[in-house]
Amino acid sequence: MSEVTLRAETGRTTGTRPSRRLRRQGKVPATLYGHDTDAVSVAVDARELRTALSTDAGINAVIRLRVGKETHTSLARQLQRHPTRGDIIHLDFVKIALTDRVDAVVHVELIGDPVGVTEDGGIVETVANTVNVHTLVTAIPESIQIDISDLRAGQSVRVADLPALGGVDYLDDPGQPIVTISLPAAALVEEEEHEEGDLEPGDPDDTGVTA
């Protein structure tokens, strides 16, 4: 479990204009809530936030948020980003206990060179590079690895094929594809032409005229 500390300031004025002023000052407006407590408007330093979310755990890092004399264990959620720059412009800090089970988005890491690429001439098509899981705060995986070395052209890895991890439940449809090995369009055309060329005169699929 990755755990980081982040300072937060209270007393910020809510609204669009005050939030813009905060961002110009290098700060990010946020809201702290959870565990049956009232929501509190806070602000954090943009650079410190970026550092806190740049560990191997990413957005699933457990954040010890210091607000005045109090420290709250939290997770960063509901990140809103600038449409072009990608900077975080607002987020929520959700209070948690280390014994809580939570939902998390985890990166899927592909391992190995598929034979469908090296031997069949296919290409790797990543359909989803993350999965949704439900698990203990202390058991959120930094990533989920899957070996795709044995994948041939036309084969896929689906959520159901991901490794079973103790205490981790996958929330996505088991049939949801993660990655597939596809043949390029040119290869498919060549394969179809080859199959047509294998027809013998007189075969049911032969379009030629027979005597």
Shape: elongated
Assembly of the depicted chains: single chain
* Spatial arrangement of strands, main beta sheet: 1-3-2-6-5-4
Low-confidence stretches: none
Distance between the termini: 77 Å
Number of helices: 4
* Gyration radius from CA atoms, angstroms: 25 Å
Number of strands: 13
Average residue pLDDT:
88
Proportion of helical residues:
10-25%
Q: Helix/strand/pairing class, anyone?
A: alpha+beta
Q: What does this protein look like?
A:
The protein has 211 residues and is α+β, with helices and mostly antiparallel strands. 16% of the residues lie in helices and 42% in strands. It has four helices and 13 strands. It has a six-stranded mixed β-barrel with strand order 1-3-2-6-5-4. β5 (70-81) and β6 form a beta hairpin. It is elongated and about 60 Å long.
Helices and strands in order:
Elements: E1 3-10, H1 16-24, E2 27-34, E3 37-45, H2 46-52, E4 62-67, E5 70-81, E6 88-95, E7 101-111, H3 115-118, E8 123-126, E9 130-136, E10 144-147, E11 156-158, E12 169-170, E13 177-182, H4 185-197
Parallel strand pairs: 1-4, 2-6, 7-10
Antiparallel strand pairs: 1-3, 2-3, 4-5, 5-6, 7-9, 8-13, 9-12, 11-13
Write out key terms for the chains shown.
211 residues, alpha+beta, six-stranded mixed beta barrel, four-stranded mixed beta sheet, 42% strand
Brief characterization of the structure:
With 211 residues, the chain is of the alpha+beta class. It contains four helices and 13 strands. A six-stranded mixed β-barrel has the order 1-3-2-6-5-4. The protein has a four-stranded mixed sheet with strand order 10-7-9-12, with no helix packed on it.
